[in-house]
Amino acid sequence: MSESTVTPAIADLTGDYTIDAAHSRLGFVARHAMVTKVRGAFKEFEGTAQIDTANPAASSVNLVIKSASIDTGVADRDGHLASGDFFDAETYPELRFNSTAVERDGEEWTITGDLTIKDVTAPVAIVFTEGGSAKDPFGNLRVGFEGDITVNRKDWGLTWNAALETGGFLVSEKVKLEFDISAIRNA
């Protein structure tokens, strides 16, 4: 059976869900030295979602991310990102997202909420696309969502940088946040 002919497990996604961190990714992409992209992800996070398809405004999402779990594949860079120059993971061990509004247009959901990094909270609106639903071999009902947003890290006080001799800066101000979410409906 091809991917395009898979039948969704459920037509109505309404319910309470827990994000399955083992099958989800909270990633980011930033430009480095103005010439390439560095990709990474947060490896430790947990979250919940309440989905109401008939009344999307009654839906909600809450997410807690361990700032020290940042992983770009380079230990020295990860250490610098966890340091006081960026996330200051020792003082601020968690990043948080709490939704304030949810809207739905077909298979697109716009989740507006407060993103807190360090001691700064700022609003963001992330558009998610439904990835479908499935019953896994263990009897869990799963739903998937994908979304991304580009933010300016300076809005959260992440201002460290270094000038390049050729002009520009070492780390881009704009960072793309990527969300690949698998959530399991609570029993």
Observed structural traits:
Lipocalin; 187 residues; mainly beta
Along the chain, the helix and strand elements come as EEEEEEHEEEEE
State the domain count. 1
- Our Rg estimate from Cα atoms comes to 18 Å
- Percent helix: under 10%
Q: Using DSSP, what is the number of strands? A: 11
Q: Topology of this structure?
A:
Elements: E1 15-19, E2 25-32, E3 36-42, E4 45-51, E5 60-66, E6 70-71, H1 75-82, E7 94-105, E8 108-117, E9 120-135, E10 141-152, E11 171-185
Antiparallel strand pairs: 1-4, 1-11, 2-3, 2-11, 3-6, 4-5, 5-7, 7-8, 8-9, 9-10, 10-11
Give the gist of this structure.
The protein has 187 residues and is mainly beta. Helices cover 4% and strands 54% of the residues.
Overview of this structure, please?
The chain has an eight-stranded antiparallel beta barrel. The protein has a single domain (18-185), classed as Beta Barrel (Lipocalin). With 187 residues, the protein is mainly β. The model has no long low-confidence stretch (mean pLDDT 86). The two termini are 29 Å apart. The chain is globular and about 45 Å long. 4% of the residues lie in helices and 54% in strands. Strand 4 and strand 5 (60-66) form a beta hairpin. It is built from one helix and eleven strands; from the N terminus they run ββββββαβββββ.
